[in-house]
Amino acid sequence: MRAVVQRVKSASVSVEGERVSSIGPGLLILLGISQDDGDEDIRYMVEKTLNLRIFDDEHGVMNLSLLEAGGEVLLVSQFTLYGDTRKGRRPSYNRAASPDEARIVFKEVEDAYRAQGIALSLGVFQTETAVELINDGPVTILVDSEKKF
């Protein structure tokens, strides 16, 4: 499981020109799901992203987690995070989960975030979406449950 985690002042998702989801300050998490992802990957990703100390404390130092800062999460499925560009010019998505598999795992990830009691908004799975954000910092972090980066 891979994620691009962005600290945002606000973020939203629109489908066919209509805003379907939005958050205020918090995290926009673009989430890629591989064929091999399971419960351990879900636990790792949720724990890691909610506890990253990337929010400013009272001294302006990135020392607080989302849980401590009280922000929101906008979670968006992003299979292209498993695009392999090592050969040729067209990315290969062989490691990405199939849409049916990814939908099941994405729902489990959603449930795991909700179990933490945070304000969670979602993108719309398997649609052409427009994601708007005001990146705060900018702070952008890559997280990989296989710990490859």
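Next protein, fold it too.
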Amino acid sequence: MGVTVQFRSRVQNLILPRAGFFMYKAYILYSENFGRYYVGHCADMDARLLRHNLKRVTSTKAFVPWKVVYTESFLTRSEAGAREKAIKNKKSRIYIEKLIGSGTGSHVPM
């Protein structure tokens, strides 16, 4: 009787993720009550949104509730962080609103 061993290296897991599976997201939140946007990145969007809405994020706690209005998916944290930085560097509400309306990422209608 033989034993079958399945082996998959860590490198293979990074290079060949399952189709449609992304590890990190750059995201935009919107606070309807205050008309404000927040840009960030994370690995777990649901957990991160919960932290924002439970007032556990210093920069957003005064403006709850938040809702996700836009996301972009990336394979690496550095890519998601770079995209967050690129959006923030625009320093433009108009740019953010065009991005949300562009259909280039996943977004939820406001």
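About the second fold: Strands lie at 24-31, 36-42, 67-74.
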